[in-house]
Design brief:
The protein is about 40% helix and about 15% strand. The protein has about 260 residues and is of the alpha/beta class. Strands 3-2-1-4-5-6-7 form a 7-stranded parallel beta sheet, sandwiched between helices.
């Protein structure tokens, strides 16, 4: 462990598993006090047990789909630790089996409520805390390349992720006078419990090439990008969407590669 982030307090939502857990691990290894948040107590307990050796990691149960609960999470962390220096929103829900004409109002509202509205509440409360404390904070939102181009049968997810890109640009603009940066990381396919049902053995083995890297991403790949963005030295990067997708968005489909 080094102390690149020594003395910093970080909140990582969606930290109970997958990408969020990988990010929490990396920030703890860099010396931050990391508060992981998730709806599921069992996932939180597992994360804390797994990351115990990495550094200081605490758990907070929170349903970020409840905007009041999301704001209270930030207030509680600030009250307990004196400040919030870093916010990483890595929570989200995804369902790739809902064609547009069959998408229900309930699913639309649930997806946007968690993925977009919950992120708004967290970022707003964290921004208020950072401004009040004079903290040159870092806000990082984990989006998806679905915010850059559409995937079939998940208009709710695609829209929520595209919305995050506009949100972060607005946050970056409005909070720039306070020295606060805000950025988006847009992952491609990453090995996680959420993506597991959609990753075939051909994809996992590399036999089916879908990006330039020729492999599925790992949570550590996203965590490395987060670590760079929250580094105190990375103050010149803000309002930016950074794809971390193995080059998937750099490719054009060839004839026969897209199913009709």
């Amino acid at each position: 462990m080094n102390d690149q982030l020594g003395g910093k307090v970080a909140i990582v939502t969606g930290g109970g598993r997958g990408i969020g857990r990988g990010i929490a691990r990396r920030l703890a290894e860099l010396g931050a006090t990391v508060v992981v948040a998730s709806r599921t107590a069992a996932d939180l307990a597992e994360t804390c047990d797994e990351l115990r050796a990495a550094g200081t990691v605490e758990a907070r149960a929170c349903d970020v789909g409840d905007r009041n609960a999301a704001r209270q999470l930030v207030r509680d962390v600030r009250a307990a630790h004196g400040a919030v220096d870093i916010l990483v929103c890595s929570h989200g829900v995804y369902d790739a089996e809902s064609p547009f004409l069959e998408l229900s109002d309930e699913q639309w509202e649930r997806t946007l409520g968690i993925n977009l509205h919950g992120t708004f509440a967290l970022a707003q409360e964290a921004g208020r805390s950072m401004v009040a404390d004079g903290t040159a904070g870092r806000i990082v939102i984990i989006s998806s390349i679905n915010g850059l181009a559409a995937e079939p049968d998940c208009a709710d997810y695609n829209t929520s992720k595209a919305g995050l890109h506009g949100l972060v640009q607005s946050i970056a603009y409005d909070l720039s006078p306070h020295g606060i940066t805000a950025n988006v990381i847009a992952p491609g396919w990453v090995r996680s419990p959420m993506s597991a049902p959609y990753l075939s053995e051909d994809i996992l083995s590399g036999r089916q090439k879908f990006n330039l890297a020729g492999r599925v991403g790992e949570p550590a790949d996203i965590a490395g990008a987060v670590a760079w963005l929250v580094d105190p030295a990375t103050s010149y990067v803000t309002g930016t969407v950074i794809p971390v997708d193995g080059g998937q968005t750099a490719m054009l489909p060839m004839p026969g590669s897209v199913e009709g």
